[in-house]
Hints:
Layout: E1 2-8, E2 12-19, E3 24-31, H1 43-62, E4 69-78, H2 88-104, E5 108-112, H3 113-121, E6 132-137, E7 142-147, E8 153-159, H4 164-174, H5 182-189, E9 201-203, E10 206-208, H6 210-222, H7 227-253, E11 257-261, H8 268-281, E12 286-289, H9 300-309, E13 318-319
Parallel strand pairs: 1-4, 4-5, 6-11, 8-10, 11-12
Antiparallel strand pairs: 1-2, 2-3, 4-13, 6-7, 7-8, 9-10
Amino acid sequence: MAVLGIDTSLYKTSCALADEQGRVVSSASRLLPVAQGALGLRQNDAVFLHVRQFPDMLSQVLAQAEGYSIQAVAVSSRPSDAEGSYMPVFEMGRTLARALALAWQVPVVETTHQRGHLRAAMIGTTGLPKRFLAVHLSGGTTDILLKEQDGSIALLAKGLDLHAGQLVDRVGVALGLSFPAGPQLDALAMSGTANGRYAVSIREGGFHLSGAETAALQDVKAGVLPKADIAANTLDVISRSLLRVLDAAAQAHAVCDVLIFGGVAASQWLRKHMQQRNLKRGYGLNLHFGLPEYSGDNAAGVALIGVEQQTTEEPSWQKF
Length: 320
């Protein structure tokens, strides 16, 4: 038996299959194509692209599902737990999930994109207690969360004007990289030097990154600073901002374990330098990062949530 997971974000079409033992049996994903020099997609364009890409992703996942019975379809039907949280791209995924569940006569399990990310980041993670801080870093979200033992999630702080992924993408595209720019900017930063060039701006409720964006774009335009140094300093201001906010949150809520996930969290530069700075500054945080392959948008966590939260109302089984 298994659960099919679906995630249709503003960046990627994803499907995954997880079995009743909590293993990801198969997964497939594809970035939504973005024109060179562009900084993203409009919602209606993303919905259209999901319609085109979804059949291929589903076909790839089901090709490896021989012998499994689909007992439920899980889907990220909204961005987060926040009241009023909504994006058309996730409604597209919800529609696809409901159609498949109706055809297969199985239940639908709805969750959020953020919870799917968090659950995927827990794959292969060891030593993480039931209560911990969580950081969601992506192009659409920069949230510092408190995950309680009962599974509830509270928002503690956030990006107040610009998300971490937006900063990475805007600076990356200005440097001539393609969108999304994360992996390329990360590779570029590896040969650069960070010296705290871009100032951290902490405020009540979170932090600002627009000032760092302005400074970085000025450096790009001036052309006097190596591109690798601009890339390194861009990731550096994200690292320093996060650690300062996390230190305050850890003290306020008596928790020291932190799980960092989302597309930006796949950055090897960020992982390395956050760990180093955490030790150097004596913050005392236990930093956990999910597997890189499950850091970006994916349906693996959604499928696992489906396994763990599936309904028990006499589902029928569909074999492939």
